[in-house]
Structures are given as C-alpha cells and as structure tokens.
Amino acid sequence: MTGTDDDILIRASGLTKTFGDFTAVDGIDFGVRRGEAFGFLGPNGAGKSSTMRMVGCVSPATGGELRLFGQDPATHGPDIRARLGVVPQRDTLDEELTVEENIWIYGRYFGLSRREVRSRTTELLEFAQLADRAGSKVEPLSGGMKRRLTIARSLVNSPEILLLDEPTTGLDPQARHVLWDRLFRLKRSGVTLVLTTHYMDEAEQLCDRLVVMDHGRIVAEGSPRSLIEQYSTREVLELRFAEDDHAAYADKLFGVGERTEVLPDRLLVYTDDGDEAAAAVHRLGLHPLSSLVRRSTLEDVFLHLTGRTLVD
C-alpha cells in the first residue's frame, strides 16, 4: 500500500504464525493508516485473532516482518503496548468490583496518577453511557454494558490504536448498534481502529478498508463498497423451493442472472435487476415457496471468493 511512514501506523509483510505443523497465518501483507477503521473479515479459524495477537505484541510472529509506529514488537513490545488499547474477544472484567473501580485499577497499570485515573474514568464513563452505573457492581450488568465498559477501560491510557477482537459477538441488535455508535465517535476523535469480525454488516458499518481472510491468507482487500462492486452484483435474488435439493434447480435457472450459488436451504441468483430475475424465474414455469430481492453484501463477496458463507 502507498503512504508515508507517518501515515501508516501498522505495516506487515509476509507475516506468518505457526503452531507446530499448523499454519494459522500464512504470509500476509497489509497496512493500517492513521485515523482509519481497518477490519479483518472472515469465519472462525481464518487467522484473524492470531493476527491481532501479533499486532497486540502478545504473540511473537513466526516469520515475516511486522512494524507498529515504525518499531519491531520483538524489541519494542512495552513501548508499543503503551500506545495501544485492546478489547479482547471475551470480557475480562473483575465482576466483584464496581464499574468505576475496573477503570481505576486498569489506569494504575499504565502508571497514571490517582488524579489522572479519576479524571479519565469520569470522561470514559460518560463516553460509554455508564456514568449512572459508576458505583454498580459489574456482575449484574447486561452484555452490552459490559462490552462498553471493556472498551472504556481499554481507552484509559489514551491509545493511538484500538484493537477490537470480535467486539459485538453475543450482543443483541440494539446493543450492537449502541456499540457501533461509540466506535464511530472514537474514530471521529482520531483513534485508529483495527477490528476482527465475522459479521458482514458490522464490517460494512465500521470499516473504511478491510481484508477478507480464509485459511490464514488474505483473499481480497479494499473498501466494503469496492469489494462488493468487484466481486458481486448490485442485487441478489434469494429463492427457496419446497424440495430439499436446491441444486436440482440450478441448471433450470441457466441464463437468469450472472451466476447462481447453491446453499443448503436456498438458491442465490446474482443479478443487477432482482425484480426482472424473479419474473424470469416465473416465466420458466418455476414456483418457489419464497423469493426475496436484496442488495449484495460482503457475505456474497466471501461466498464468491471461498465457496462458503462466513458462518460456516
């Protein structure tokens, strides 16, 4: 990727991570620019979390080159970690302490004075919409509240880069949208976001650029819009038939749309005009149980690139 050294906060070249005979990350190249939201999209086991652990300076690379702020994690790990905020896949809050005490203790790990910690805690609880729960124990909080507290805690050292590993896994739709709003505000304030996700709507909502990973490799890179334009069509027609074997209908739909994908429970017809494709299906004398026209998503991109859905 292009850009000056000051623009690019994270640069990886041939980055590799192996565990015995298993290769989790297989020689990937990527760069993250200052102030952007950069995502790793892929199913479980694609290598996203292993990559994030190397970027977070808690797991050494097996091969290749990795630089953060122009420094090597192998020799400048503590200096780099001091400039990072990390939101792990699972919350690691102390549920016996109060909301504000969780932030106080974390701030002291970074050597902040008691005065600084209390000031930052007040700011961060307001940001996370948890000010009214400052004195509450963590244990009874909802999943969304705990996730916002984990993010607030990760910001106590005013990090330049915030690493988020599957930030909204397990949250209900409303809690996810609240969290997206908080992350959008962080990005606008100048914090660089790096996240992993297997939710295509999350990647489309949050990421300026992303890479699609599969089996430890990067199979595509670009903005959500550019990837959809490159690898999919404007619309998708979803068809469900009464018979379980949807593959039997694929040949009958030849010429309807640009291509057809067969999933266990439905057929996907990729086309720039979903309504016309639906009409063509009926002209062929086929009568699906249901038909739905929708816009293409990153899920369709991943299916085209790998032959499987993100949730496989």
Summed up, the domain count is 2
Biggest β-sheet: count, sense, barrel? Answer: 6 strands, mixed
H/E series? EEEHEHEHHHEHEHEEHEHEEHEH
**What is Rg?**
22 Å
**In CATH, what is the homologous superfamily of the largest domain?**
P-loop containing nucleotide triphosphate hydrolases
Tally of helical runs: 11
What is the terminal separation in angstroms? 31 Å
Tell me the helix content: 25-40%
Given as residue ranges, the uncertain stretches (5+ residues, pLDDT < 50) are none
CATH class of the largest domain: Alpha Beta
Q: Write down the CATH topology of the largest domain.
A: Rossmann fold
Question: Which percent band covers the strand fraction?
Answer: 25-35%
**What CATH architecture of the largest domain would you give?**
3-Layer(aba) Sandwich
Membrane topology: Peripheral membrane protein
Organism: Oryzihumus leptocrescens
Family: Belongs to the ABC transporter superfamily.
Subcellular location: Cell membrane
Structure write-up:
The protein is an alpha/beta fold. The protein folds into 2 domains: 8-223, P-loop containing nucleotide triphosphate hydrolases (Rossmann fold); 233-295, Alpha-Beta Plaits, CATH 3.30.70.980. It has helices at 48-55, 73-81, 99-109, 114-127, 143-154, 173-188, 200-206, 224-231, 247-250, 274-283, 298-306, and strands at residues 8-19, 22-33, 37-41, 63-68, 84-87, 161-165, 192-197, 209-214, 217-222, 235-240, 259-263, 266-271, 290-295. α6 links the parallel β6 (161-165) and β7 (192-197). The model has no long low-confidence stretch (mean pLDDT 92). Residues 10-240 form the ABC transporter domain. Belongs to the ABC transporter superfamily. GO terms for molecular function: ATP binding; ATP hydrolysis activity.
